[in-house]
Design brief:
Structural class: alpha/beta
Oligomer: single chain
Number of helices: 8
Number of strands: 7
Strand order of the largest sheet: 3-2-1-4-5-6-7
Helix content: 40-55%
Order of helices and strands: EHEHEHEHHEHEHHE
Length: about 260
Amino acid sequence: MSLISLEGKRGLVIGIANKSSIAYGCARAYKDMGAADLAVTYLNAKAEPHVRPIAEDLGAGLFLPLDVRVEGDLERVFATIKERWGKLDFVLHSIAFAPKDDLHGRVVDSTRDGFMLAMDVSCHSFIRTAKLAEPLMTDGGCLQTVSFYGADKVVEHYNLMGPVKAALESVTRYMAYELAPKGIRVHTLSPGPLATRAASGIDHFDELMERTAERAPQHRLVSVDDVGAYSGFLASDAAKALTGSCVYIDAGYNIMG
């Protein structure tokens, strides 16, 4: 068996919307690395017909509805995993949301309700996910979430999501510290800009992708498969000495001044 293997491991993947999703690239990598089974979630009835064929292609044993804004939804997902599998080895949390007006406006103009909703869906839901995953990770495990360079530096038009993702990255470090005694590792993936459904809500995103490709040392954009490859490595036992990291998968863009 290869050292970088997920053989015998079961994982939960939150955030697949279509085949352009970062979560899909990661899920495909998990299966290619030998994951025993996956639980794949979909947002609602409107999203189900788009995600179901993907889950079937992945051979996902569990296909579950999940809207973290709905009371009890997240708990039901984990109750099903406990009933069917009894344990869990890794989780990918790849969801974010902000109301359109708050996302497109200045941070100083953001509404209280908009800010709180963005923080709840994009950040606090990862904390709740970790809390529910903890008792199922009896042999240790790996929790991963997704951020962006705009959490650390100002990126024009990223706006409200910058502070929200900064909080998410800080949460990763604190949870990595708190869960380490149980062998649970926590990481943030920070890919370069990708043409995902979620990114389409950000103003001038095409321009951001063009600038990134021009300035990155490798002069290219990354793919969901690039992200998936690193995510699979982090979930494997080969990365058991790593925790609390924010990993840039951006063709080197983050090193540029």
